[in-house]
Amino acid sequence: MEGKKLALVAIFCLTFSMLPSNTVSIAVMSVDLGSEWMKMAIVKPGVPMEIVLNKESRRKTPTAVCLKENERLFGDSALGMSVKNPKTVYLHLQSLLGKKHDNLQVALYQKRFPEHQLQEDPVRGTVYFKYSEEMQYTAEELLGMVLNYSCGLAQDFAEQPIKDAVITVPAFFNQAERRAVLQAARLAGLKVLQLINDNTAVALNYGVFRRKDIDNTAKNVMFYDMGSGSTTATIVTYQTVKTKESGTQPQLQIRGVGFDRGLGGFEMDLRLRDHLAKLFNEQKKSKKDVRENHRAMAKLLKEAQRLKTVLSANVDFMAQVEGLMDDIDFKSKVTRAEFENLCADLFERVPQPVKDALSAAEMTMNEIEQVILVGGATRVPKVQEVLLKAVEKEELGKNINADEAAAMGAVYQAAALSKAFKVKPFLVRDAAVFPIQVDFTRETEEEGIKSVKHNKRILFDRMAPYPQRKVITFNRYNTDFAFDINYGDLSFLTKEDISIFGSLNLTTVRLSGVDGSFLKHADAESKGIKAHFNMDESGVLLLDRVEAVFETVEEEKEEESTLTKLGNTISTLFGGGSSEPTPNVTEPVQDEEEVPPESGTESQDKDNKEEAEKEKQEESEKNAAEEKTQKTEEEEAGSKTETKEEQENKTNGEADAEKKEKPKKKSKISEDITVELLINDILDPTTDQLASSKKRLQDLTDRDVAKQEREKTLNSLEAFIFETQDKLYQEEFQLVVSEEEKDQISAKLREASEWMDEDGYTATTKQLREKLSKLKSLSKDMFFRVEERRKWPDHLAALESMLNTSTFFLRSAKMIPVDDQIFTDVELNLLEKVINETTTWKNETVAEQEKRSPQERPVLLSKDIESKLALLDREVNYLLNKAKFAKPKAKAKAKNGTSSDKSNGTSEEKTIPPTEEDPPAKSETPEEVQPGEAPPTAEDAAQTETDDQTPPTEEATTTGPTEKGHHENHIDDEL
Question: Do you know which SUPFAM superfamilies this protein is assigned to (predicted)?
């Protein structure tokens, strides 16, 4: 029983902690940002994980935005506009993020969407869309609009504000592309908890729902994700691991990733589109080339997308487009064999991401337990056929939602990162697809000849896990210098991939103030210049800080007493101690520059080993000195029985030894170095540029909101005019309105209708609201009278039923014998009074209302009837609850029966029978009412009856505890 109580308390506390605050939004969302579609999911109190439905009640939304002169459209509305006016619709924005104007990907985008005009940013070198001189937007700004729209959909679905989000990105996104997504999210007003790789989100979703199947035996699973724009193969290892924080927990680790940036369903759609255009031209129904008509090509693309889906289940299908060009219809038969021939070279590329993933993970296909399909393009039969041969498995796994897995995995991660939710831990170790290294040069002198030597140190290897911190130490610099952060060996990429990849150089780091720190600490030994790097949860590399570290050596002071040591230890625990920085969680990269003339990997390993041995030797010497000091104290404490001469001789000998081998104390000093970062790949927008972009997007949002509000007001005004004109001729309205009032309302409605036809559609929102407010005010009394007459029958019937029920209950309560009576006279009298007053009020008000004309304001109001009903219901429920929880009176027993009760060991309370002096009204025992409830006393009743100024209500005739009992009993009864 006690365990059940504790469980209930725990559930209550958990539920209470999940309740939303009135001021703080705690719902979180995820956005699976695909190149063609995006899916959103939310987590909020009471809703664990759920996919967001858009305004069309669909579970996925096109990643599209339409920009017209006076409005913006998103999702399906924007996609529909792409057929009518493709120049105003922007699609597949992901492929332009973090790219310069001369990138091959930009040229490919221009070829696919020739209706758009792409210009080069003179400062950043990136591209922007130019629709007109006034309408020019970057890819980040357009993506920010899309993210803002997705946030709005999630907020409408969650019915509360949402700002925290986890956004998915392709695993092959480099540093510039990831920063571009973060910039777009910042423009959208979203707080990004993490950029999670889409393949990692899928793997997390798969693991969360199979937690019970994960044990300490490693299981390798491959996810093959072919979406609209790209293909990714990922090898994931599932295994339980022990952690200090939460014990044994399941973990997923990304072991290998292979990808193809250009292999996806969209390329298949384009080839089908071009094939349909060729068929139309061959029919020679028009002299024009359909490929030069952007609108016609957009129609063919839409039909090609439908055709690809149908051919996945049928061997042939009839493609048709009405009014393709110049009012000419198009109709032609296409077979699955023709489609497979069109995409033959694409299907040949299907196995390559699998091979690349196995190579990165250093595994064979025999070590992979299962291959699971993800992404819409994997539904193409030929893709599955080729992939099945490549992976050498009996079947492909289809036990995951190919469209929504990434969104669901990302929202689980969002809930885990949010402080408002507590989820079961699932450890995620993602991996960096591209290696990163540090390059620097230094002068060397060999046989009197000075030369500049180039050095490089690997910071993050390929498939290195992150988040992770690394430290690189430069030991041979005592003046200002610079080093470069670049990508490492990318030989696993093809030449085309590297050209699309962009700049191989990331950042140049210039350090200043190094010589000043050396001059300041000239007496100390230099431990090098340490650069602290951090690859965060989003896979973005950051340089946290650079510091110069020095070490000073001092002789130990006289031996401290035990109390002094204890005091120093306590002060260290509470914030004192050395100023040495906290050690990193991961093992730092020991990048010492004390390199022999020969360079290469062997010299680097030698330097690392020498440094490690040096540190171990210093640490062992320090430990040995401390042990010796402790041993000396013990010997001194145990030598009290020795003779004075022996003690003196021994002490002198130890003192001489201590002077020879006295340990030295080392302390470290760190000083921050000024850092200047020069970005070499894609420049980030300046603060002013970001502020300007935010303002432009906010202005567009405000314009959209104002337009929606005006349209809503305009529709409301139109609807009110037509509906009210119609109602004036309905029977129930004609009954309550006079001819004079009817003529007045009709005239105003007719005037408003004429104004709408002439000026209404160009009027401002304020003018429309004022017009609507005046019309509503004019006809308010008429609607009120009609509404009241509609409510009377049901309300009066309910009141009559309640009066009958209350009267019957009162009669039954009064018939209870005195010995068994559980109600006091005050309670019964109060109920009787309420019944009589309600009956009198009903009869008098109804009679007066019948005398009035229907065109006059009624005196019988529905709200008054509801008030009377509530009062009667409250009084009767109070007495019913009292009867429900009342215990029967205990009968007085004879004296000779007392001993038997005691012998039986019962715990029943002893009941004192009423005496002659006690009136019957006070004969109730506390057992007759619910515990914690105080019945009205005789003094309270007398005071109530003599009080002429206050009407006898429930509150006036009960004490404070009784009111509490009222409330609690009422709640218990409802439950």
Answer: Actin-like ATPase domain (SSF53067), Heat shock protein 70kD (HSP70), C-terminal subdomain (SSF100934)
Instruction: Write out the DSSP string of 108-129.
Output: HHHHH-TTS-EEE-TTT-BEEE
Quick check: 827 pLDDT over 70? yes
Contact between 485 and 436 under an 8 Å Cβ cutoff? The reply is yes
The confidence score (pLDDT) of residue 625 equals 47
Check: CB of residue 505 under 8 Å from CB of residue 681.
Answer: yes
Contact partners, residue 362, CB within 8 Å, separation at least 6: 256
CATH code at 28-265+348-429? 3.30.420.40
DSSP, res 69: S
Percentage of the chain lying above the pLDDT 70 cut: 77
For residues 588-609, average pLDDT? 39
Average of per-residue pLDDT across 869-883: 90
Contacts of 584 (CB under 8 A, 6+ apart): 469, 470, 471, 532
Q: How confident is the model at residue 539 (pLDDT cuts 50, 70, 90)?
A: very high
Determine how many CB atoms are found less than 10 A away from the CB of residue 49: 19
Give the pTM.
Answer: 0.73
For the cut 70, the answer to whether the pLDDT of residue 894 exceeds it is no
Q: What pLDDT, in 10s, does the model give residues 410-427?
A: 999 999 999 888 889 999
Q: Residue 488 pLDDT > 60, yes or no? A: yes
Spell out the domain ranges in the chain.
Answer: 28-265+348-429, 434-553, 788-883
- Kindly provide the residue ranges of all beta strands, DSSP E only, lying in 152-214, ordered along the sequence: 164-169, 191-197
Query: Is the pLDDT at 628 greater than 80, yes or no?
Result: no
- Torsion on CA atoms 942, 943, 945, 950, rounded to nearest 10: -170
What is the maximum alpha-carbon separation in the chain? 132
CA-based nearest residue to 115, from 301, 324, 306, 343: 301
C-alpha 153/C-alpha 140 separation (Å) is 20
Sign of CA dihedral 292, 295, 296, 297: positive
CA pair distance 61, 56, nearest whole angstrom: 9
Is residue 655 within 8 Å of 533, Cβ to Cβ?
no
Tell me what pLDDT residue 889 has. 65
Q: Say how far apart CA 81 and CA 758 lie, in whole Å.
A: 30
CA distances from 59 to 40, 150, 407, 724 (A): 8, 12, 11, 39
The token duo for 471 is 């430290």
Both tokens of 612, joined, read 């490690």
Could you check whether the bond before residue 935 is cis, i.e. omega within 30 degrees of 0?
no
CATH class of 434-553: mainly beta
For 552, phi and psi rounded to 5 degrees?
-110, 150
Are the CB atoms for 531 and 484 separated by under 8 Å? no
